Amino acid sequence: MPSDRTSAGDPARTLALLWRDPSATPRRGPARGLTVDAVVDAAIALADREGLDAVTMRRVAQALGVVPMTLYTYVPGKAELLDLMLDAAYARMERTDSTGEPWRTRLAAVARENQALFEAHPWAVAVSTLRPSLGPGSIAKYEHELAALDGLGLRDVEMDDCLTHLLSFVQANARAAIEASAARAADGLTDQHWWDQAGPLLARVLDPDAYPLAVRVGSAAGAARGSAHDPGHAFHFGLARVLDGLAALIERAGPTGAG
Amino acid sequence: MPSDRTSAGDPARTLALLWRDPSATPRRGPARGLTVDAVVDAAIALADREGLDAVTMRRVAQALGVVPMTLYTYVPGKAELLDLMLDAAYARMERTDSTGEPWRTRLAAVARENQALFEAHPWAVAVSTLRPSLGPGSIAKYEHELAALDGLGLRDVEMDDCLTHLLSFVQANARAAIEASAARAADGLTDQHWWDQAGPLLARVLDPDAYPLAVRVGSAAGAARGSAHDPGHAFHFGLARVLDGLAALIERAGPTGAG
DNA sequence: GAGTACACAGTACATCGTACGGAGTAAGGA
DNA sequence: TCCTTACTCCGTACGATGTACTGTGTACTC
């Protein structure tokens, strides 16, 4: 499988595809039986239902009733298909209008929108690169999210820095949540079963004298996660920290439109 | 390729392997020609030199002068090999002693150690799950890093929260840096070349009236990144934000050992 | 000394992305 | 009008992956 997630192909071609540029649709030959959107939608549906691993050219083609190679007349390769999927997901994100709200409320809304994206489309965190692919979805999302940082007295570069910082937190948090639930699902082990298996060795090897903090804090954290605990705890905690961290910058910049 | 990065195998077996438990080494039969460490080291060397994609069972075996299937007498599967690689990398991290320093200095040191890990072993960000696999390397790392948060008046769970928050920032930052440089290397395009190709369409489609903030801020950010600019800018910016965010929590908790 | 548990090799299979070539179709220029 | 050309769609095929399975020979245990 030569070069999967590299997107090394002609960037102009990929951009034209992302923007559905007419130059990308042919003028001659038989009518097409499908559309790029149909391919992308089928791939997204598959990824939503069965995860990113299920998105193979064969399975997507099967869902559309065509033979695998047919997809290549719509899309240069799988990497570009993934780019298109992500941009489509971006384009369809809900964008709450929070103009007039204080900046913390606005940024919290942005964070929650992105969290919702990753909750609805867990595959998006694996595809997302944080380097926007400059499709219409990315740009619309970027524009919307920058609005939450506008009028705070930040310089342009700082606005981008702050947004990147916020989004990278949400993505890291989503990634952790997804991997945790994937690990739980992969080995169909209940926590009890897991401890029965791993406990004896762990108890022998995790010497509280050698690792006092790790054992104490680790078991406290494990107990907190394991018991009936707010599942979105890490998100709330982290978001509060991120906003506090930005506050030091924003409130120094000048409360022009801070509300 | 059934089930790659799932680590679904027997957790006890994996743990025994991580801790090099004697129960994992056999008592009968011919002497082994290799060791688990030799396999892990070969895999790490390969990953360091050619990236994680080059780490295939065949290539690792080749580097060791054995046939691919031989590796399976040392390691249950590839997923476990990756776990072992990560834990070995954790174990070998430099751990600067910063006791006595103020907490910001201590946490900054932790952040830099992790950044150095990802710089030396870029594959580690792809393997790392933020859910520690409980190997000796993970535990030693956890113990060391918790020490930077000890004596600040934080509850145990908060210590874990803060550390997770800090590490997840470093990892997200490293991921972005790696993907950026990978994208630059993948298509051997210079930035100039890229703009020649993509510029015309982009100029036509990125209407400043439709996306005023995106165009303005995006080009400012792009110019800042493109020109002679501190390459670690995002790290410094983000770290400062993270520490400011934790400060609100830590300094409220009580400056017991804040220095 | 017998039986067992193991190391190591070789072959084989399912799965992946996609290169390649052929058959048929519709638009553009003569 | 017809031929060329550009295109769609299909089928086959290739190299690569992780690893299950099946020997064959070795060294420890009783």
What is the CA-atom radius of gyration of chain A, in angstroms? 23 Å
Which parts of chain A are unreliable, with pLDDT below 50 for 5 consecutive residues or more?
A: 1-7
Give the helix tally of chain A: 11
Overall geometric form of chain A: flat
What would CATH call the architecture of the largest domain in chain A?
Orthogonal Bundle
Could you state the CATH homologous superfamily of the largest domain in chain A?
Tetracycline Repressor, domain 2
CATH topology term of the largest domain in chain A? Tetracycline Repressor, domain 2
Describe how the helices and strands are arranged.
Two copies of one chain form a homodimer.
Chain A: H1 11-18, H2 36-50, H3 57-64, H4 78-91, H5 103-120, H6 123-127, H7 136-147, H8 156-186, H9 191-205, H10 212-226, H11 233-253
Helix pairs in contact in A: 2-3, 2-4, 4-7, 5-8, 8-11
The structure holds a DNA duplex (30 and 30 nucleotides).
Description:
The structure is a homodimer of 259-residue chains. The first copy, chain A, is mainly α and 259 residues long. Chain A has 2 domains: 11-90, Arc Repressor Mutant, subunit A (Orthogonal Bundle), CATH 1.10.10; 97-253, Tetracycline Repressor, domain 2 (Orthogonal Bundle). Chain A contains 11 helices and no strands. In chain A, helix 2 packs across helix 3 and helix 2 (36-50) packs across helix 4. The longest helix of chain A has 31 residues, at 156-186. Chain A is flat and about 75 Å long. The relative contact order of chain A is 0.10. Residues 1-7 of chain A have low confidence and may be disordered. Chains A and B meet through helix 1, helix 7, helix 8, helix 9 and helix 10 of A and helix 1, helix 7, helix 8, helix 9 and helix 10 of B. Chain A binds a DNA duplex (30 and 30 nucleotides) through loops.
